[in-house]
Write a structure and sequence with these properties.
The chain is an alpha/beta fold and about 300 residues long. The protein has helices at about 20-40, 55-70, 90-105, 110-115, 120-125, 130-145, 160-170, 175-180, 205-215, 235-245, 250-265, 290-300; strands spanning about 10-15, 15-20, 45-50, 75-80, 105-110, 150-155, 195, 275, 280-285. The mean pLDDT is about 95. The structure holds iron/sulfur cluster. Iron/sulfur cluster binds near residues 135, 136, 224, 227 and 230.
Length: about 300
């Protein structure tokens, strides 16, 4: 296949067109920049990017950095969470450090051990629980705290992630979670919740992978050793199989969801936010889940 912009050999497909490496990069960035403009995702310089060091988050940091530079908005700040996953997280955070050093981006790294007193691996050795349940709650909690002084928190979620989440929430009949999805997710408005945004909302995972390679972002391609346990794996396999047979299925799922989102939001009631009785962070209960997890560790009692 030839590049659709020049006579060179295409190295990848983006939005159904083949491109050489130079034009792939350009088509990718133009598409994401247009999406960010159209949805007005970034309009100030107070932008934080959640970066794990994998291909999605390093790519989104790279694109947001270029976008902000083009708009004269300065540099984003990078935020990383070290869960304490042996043989995995050290390498990805090392990649974030290298990227940030090279591009003069301020990076803040916090760990579960410093914040909660245990690493994820230690917690899993003590309790027989699902790693992603604990990990997801603690990571969201820390990122929300770290991003408090910023207008938006950027994440690297892509079209694959979003189409899987839509289907999972449908399968679980979870209208509340479904209504909260989107490129600007959530319903709650509070000074204590920094708005999240997803510039890669309409970009496929494979496209992000090619972008990270052509930009030589150095992101390790391996995944978390607990990833095989993720609840979304069967849904991902199902959607990938359908996409292989009928290209466009992922985009259809997400576009269909977006066309219903306004109605869905009107059908769910917003949680009433209060302050956690232990740490003061926002929660819909009396004590937030992160504090409950910390207490279960301290008492040696299984929570989930
Ligand atoms: Fe955490 Fe699960 Fe993701 Fe691993 S796969 S980083 S345990 S949420």
């Amino acid at each position: 296949m030839k590049c659709s912009k020049c006579s060179r050999k295409a190295i990848g497909v983006f939005q159904q067109k083949g491109y050489c490496s130079e034009h792939f990069k350009q088509a990718f960035e133009d598409f994401v920049f247009n999406f960010m403009d159209e949805k007005k995702l970034i309009s100030s310089s107070r932008v934080a990017v959640a970066v794990s060091g994998g291909k999605d988050s390093t790519s989104v940091l790279n694109v947001v950095m270029k976008y902000m530079d083009k708009k004269g908005l300065g540099k984003p700040k990078a935020l990383s969470v070290d869960e304490g996953i042996k043989g995995y997280r050290k390498e990805t955070i090392g990649n974030v450090r290298d990227f940030c050093d090279k591009n003069n981006i301020e990076l803040k790294v916090v760990s579960y051990r410093e914040e909660f007193g245990f690493s994820l691996d230690e917690f899993l050795e003590e309790f027989n629980t699902h790693p992603c349940t604990v990990c997801g709650i603690l990571r969201r909690y820390l990122l929300n705290k770290l991003a408090r002084d910023y207008d938006v928190l950027v994440t690297g979620h892509n079209l694959d992630d979003e189409s899987q989440s839509v289907l999972m929430n449908l399968v679980n009949a979870d209208l509340g979670l479904l209504a909260r999805q989107g490129f600007r997710p959530g319903l709650l408005y509070s000074d204590k919740f920094t708005k999240r945004i997803k510039p890669f909302y309409l970009v496929k995972e494979k496209e992000v992978m090619v972008y990270s390679l052509v930009c030589d972002l150095g992101a390790p391609l391996g995944s978390c050793p607990n990833a095989h346990l993720a609840f979304r794996n069967p849904v991902r396999d199902l959607i990938n199989e359908r996409e292989g047979k009928e290209p466009g299925v992922k985009r259809n799922i997400v576009e269909f969801f977006l066309s219903l989102k306004g109605d869905l939001v009107g059908m769910v009631e917003d949680d009433v936010l209060q302050e956690c009785g232990r740490c003061g962070e926002p929660t819909s209960g009396n004590v937030c889940k992160a504090c409950l997890i910390r207490e279960s560790w301290e008492k040696g009692e299984q929570l989930f």
